[in-house]
Records
---
Amino acid sequence: MADPHPTSGLPTALLAEDDPEVADLVRRHKESLFPSVGLNYAEPIELRRGEGQYVYDGEGRQYLDFFGGIATVSTGHANPEVNAAVKAQLDRITHTSTLFLIRSQIELAERLRAMTPPKLNKVFFTNSGTEANEAAFLITTLNRDSNELVALRHSYHGRSFATINASGQAPWRSSTLSPLHVHYVGNPYCYRCPWEKTYPSCGLICARDVEAVIRTTTSGRPAAFVAEPIQGVGGFITPPPEYFQEVKAILDKYGIPFICDEVQTAWGRIGAADFGFQAYGVEPDVVVFAKGLANGVPIGGIVATDELATSIRSLSLSTFGGNPIATTAALANLNYIATHNLRDHARTVGSYLIERLWGLAERHQVIGDVRGMGLLVGIELVRDRLTKEPAPDVALRVLDAAKERGLIVGKGGLHANTLRLSPPLIVSTADVDAAVGILDEALTAAVA
Ligand SMILES: Cc1ncc(COP(=O)(O)O)c(C=O)c1O
């Protein structure tokens, strides 16, 4: 096996134009797929194989994966325990539809109920985070007889007709037509406070804005408030510790359900806790999940109160939702996270990562902010620390330079200037050292 911690001295990656096979794939991708399905890198790569925290391209070149398929590969690529369970299930039965009893679906639903607050009693399975948010919007709008939703600016909740409009980021809003009437509140973005205040002397004006918006722009009885504990696509924007408790008190005053979109933050990723809402000490009325639950096998869903779950009075099912393969993978994945104590591991390694990145910030003026929890960590790049002018071009160059040196990281944020690190939860402090070493070189190369 190649050097597990490549930091320097690696051969420069083959450029697509040098590799006819990759160039051909890029051409065919562009020819046959929607133009909105973008590719990372000036020279895109095909990841053909993965093992643990590593992925390999067509040339067999190894990369340390610090993005995890967008915070989705939680227990490592080709995890033998998860894969063995999936292979055995494939050989038993792949699909039955939800018209038949599915043992693994029932077991997973029981497990999710046990992991969430007692009032969250019913589970509905989907195949993606988008669909899961759709289900959450459906039950809350039906229950409250309202099409009004309160959402955060800089949020991302999916790519469908309703979820696009719940998302507060122009680059992702292909349509503003919507079945929902969405009211957007300022987000808890301390680095770029919408009110230009400083935490904690701000008095959490962002939380108080929720009440102001409810009272001034809604009918007074919106269907729900939706938020991610840490805004993922928004650039891992991490609210201050008291934010959700203050917001929840306001929601309770008006009897408004809280939809917690845990698509990026669940399953131990944020360290110590299973979910983001636990880290913030609140109980939502609907938990939305997807991404990391089945280690990359498509799955999504919601856990909701009995009252909200019974709001759907018509017939309603998802053909693939809760299918035997995805739910078997999820159970094996949750077992792996629990038996290997990956929640606590994510906290320890994540704290070390954040500490190392602040160290990097001492040498690289382009780093404006480092934030996150556990192994969900963002690095916001700016042209100048005083003006905080976003540096999306530098972010692009860092992504390419890191890839050339054998490291994969993500990118996001309204201005596309935040590097997103969300590796599989199995990474070690030695992996962090390797990643930070490469980022150091990549940042130097990107600003040169
Ligand atoms: C917080 C959040 N919600 C919902 C979604 C949509 O999930 P999917 O892409 O599985 O539809 C995403 C995707 O990135 C997300 O980050």
---
Amino acid sequence: MHLTILVGTMTGTAELVAEEIQTVLEADGHGADIKLMDGLDSAVFQPDGPYLIVTSTYGQGDVPDNTRALMDSLERSKPDLSKVRYGIFALGDRTYTETFCLGGKQFDAMLRDLGAQRVGEILMHDASAGTMPEEVALDWIPGWLSLCEESLA
Ligand SMILES: Cc1cc2nc3c(=O)[nH]c(=O)nc-3n(C[C@H](O)[C@H](O)[C@H](O)COP(=O)(O)O)c2cc1C
């Protein structure tokens, strides 16, 4: 399997999560590319491989600034993503009760509207829970990968 990990971040935490996931995948004989979302457009989504969106939430439930170009492009061009499979690892903080992990949820809603199929549930990391998102990712990724392999079979 070759996974593309798309990263939305303000201060780099989501990128650390992506790097951990990449290390695990490569050790397991898979391939994984990490792409910061800065300047990407909807053409990044190809039917051939699964995608993992790793994104935080800022402002009042907003997506990080570096994801704007991609979000705008998806909204404008409305590509048919019905062959695309994706997962979401959302970073947030439950002290923002009204907007917890809304950045990841916004991506989920956008991709679903364009016909893409989500694999598994959205992982919502809570920065106030005292766990490190990279460590949570290590526990989460094997189960998600199995679901992904099943969905591609
Ligand atoms: C100014 C600010 C606003 C935030 N707003 C939210 C929010 O609305 N909802 C949420 O769940 N988390 C919110 N967070 C928490 C971040 O999403 C969380 O700390 C995340 O781990 C940061 O990841 P990053 O370094 O990849 O951007 C906010 C953090 C900051 C500093």
---
Amino acid sequence: MGLMPDSYRQMEPEELRLSILERKEALGKRLIVLGHHYQRQDVIDFADFRGDSLGLSRLAAAQEDCEFIVFCGVRFMAESAEILRREHQKVQHPDPKSGCPLADMADIASVQRAWDLVAGTGEDRKVIPVTYMNSGSDLKAFCGRREGAVCTSSNAGAAFKWAQAKGEKIFFFPDENLGRNTARQVGIPREEILLWDPDVSPLDPEIEKRVQEATLILWKGFCHVHTDFRPDHIRRIREEDPGAKIVVHPECSEEVVAEADAVGSTEYICRYVEQAPSGSSVYVGTEINLVDRLAVEHPDKKIYEVFRSLCPNMFRINPAKLLWILDEIGEVHRVYVDSETKELAKVALENMLSFS
Ligand code: SF4
């Protein structure tokens, strides 16, 4: 793994800005810079497209002239672009250390161990694995190998219905909160949910009975950015600004979602704010860089955060790292996913197309 020379860190913001614009102009249509909604503004300023991880990966793969894809986001996002890219395209990630703690909570060894335990109960043929987009390529491939699917926060409800029609149980990774919020949406009762804690579940003497009784097995993972939001934050907003609307992301806890006016993906949140009447107040429960940007882009509305919660992993990407990647285009921090993993992950992604 290459190390960025110190000279990039020492550059002034304006010098960085002009240099990035110059490199982008020189590469023209051969380059696409993708910026996830949670990226800081001084990175988003250089994004050709901004959006969510799946949307951005598909957009990049649709650009025939593009040879180089630079994904400003966390690692699983760059891997998704690598899975979906065209043959001649190369994907680079400005900081390979920028991972997603939620995705990392479901490492493939623990998932395989859990699956084997579920299989040991004789129930495995009835279980359909579904993984959230926020997961490693190996977990996506795991689901593809077992006729499962990938889902996003927009289509998790459809994914659960699809999986229920195909099998009898769903094993969902890695976000417990998205799983619980989706279960409520599709009517899976709380008592039919088995929470799979990889640290303790294998020791549970009741495991066989509990797997048999479950409709939904939920991996015990969470996003620390979205679990920062609490019901008392919402209650305080209601007291202080009773006319305001509150929209939150489904990675928030069930309790927070229950107290909000609306819940949905980042794309849904952007539309919600766009469609809010001029002059209205909207409080947003998601990563602070998106909230701040929405506030700037909608000066006719009052857009506030439910609580300031920043994703430090997203924040690792900065203009200096982006410039270095552009200077080493096609070379440093290339993202690789082996061909077998890629093909199986594509199966899980294609299965998603059948319900979205
Ligand atoms: S906001 Fe949460 S889910 Fe998104 S990259 Fe950060 S830790 Fe992962």
